[in-house]
Amino acid sequence: MPFSFRRIGTALLALTLALALTPALFSQSTEERVRDLERQVEQLKAETAAMKGGGEQGSDAGRITELERRLEVLAGEIEKMKIGEAAVSAEASENGFGPAASKVYRSERGLSIGGYGEVRYQDFDSDESAELDLLRAVLYFGYKWNDRWLFNSEIEYEHAGEEVAVEFAYIDYLWRPQASFRAGLVLVPMGFINELHEPTVFLGANRPELERRIIPSTWKENGFGLFGEAGPFTYRTYLVNGFDATGFSAAGLRGGRQEGIEAKADDFAWVGRLDYTGAPGLLVGGSAYLGNSGQDLESATGQAIDVGTTIFEGHLEWRWRGLELRALGVQASLDDVAGLNRALDLTGDESVGEELKGYYLQLGYDVLSGRGAGKALIPYARWETYNTQDGVPAGFRANPANDVETLTLGLAFKPLEQLILKADFQNIDNEAGTGVDQLNVVLGYVF
Known about the structure:
Number of helices: 6
Number of domains: 2
CATH topology of the largest domain: Porin
């Protein structure tokens, strides 16, 4: 009997609503602090005006300069408080998000604004034309009501505005470090890239392909759950609407994302992630996804096609001085793929994979480490292999073009932490012998 998430989802939804209605402890507002600073500004203005009008400006020039400097500092502080520190710098990751996406967590109150972008040039050794594309221009908008409640969102414009999408939009209740609550359109916490996809935080002009086809970045769904940390461990766990299996293909799971758009919710899924960060520069962990993807899909005879879906992923990152190493492996399994193929009229080597798997190893070294004054120059290499049809049902066959190996060799330069230029060469090979070579160059930024 297939595992039912609908009943669990109903119970957890009721629990979350009950918690949301529980009175929260609101911290004091900053209005009194703003008024106090404004009083100080007025006093300094009066003192400065009196000294300038006293006829002895020469002897008091130093004092007047100091008063004007203090006025400028206080004016800036008042502006930050009034706009909620929207200009907090994009300098560190918080709660699983990239530096720019995390700005709302570092703000005092009110509005927070950030963003990132990528311009990409690609040239291929095939008949395909070279391409120069404003790949992404992203804006983050967050709002912090108080120390407990905040909203965060990402709005993405792809290909110079040809595609516009909300990448996430959620509300957090920051209860305590060990357990906080999140609900809305959330990023599924699997792999590296799905949550940390800002161009300055990963190597490679292009994202690893297995983190697009098997972990289908950027992957977001409607849901709710918990996140927190305990000692050297951090975790995130959500209940989300499941995939829509009618979007699966021989190329992978990417088409099954519902992305929060009138998402079918006949089937739910659970996803959880646990990371260990107990040693400096080390992150090691894993994640799991379990649910059904049929969404009330039926065969020609009226029999339910549940398409049970499981994904397991393990990852490691180690940073030591200028060295950075990443490793990731993933395996996905689908049930009742033969029934799904029949429902989708897929035949021969068009079958959705029953088993999908892959892994990659990536190494980079900052040759300016310790002497670059904030700059970085990083040669890097990544070897990646994946197969989206590692297993197919009886009566179908795998397409060898979906068994892929990719070698990426490149160089990244950061003139400062928020800007990056990445150039790499990729040799993409497959078992069908139809691979290509390509050159990629990306200019990326965050703010």
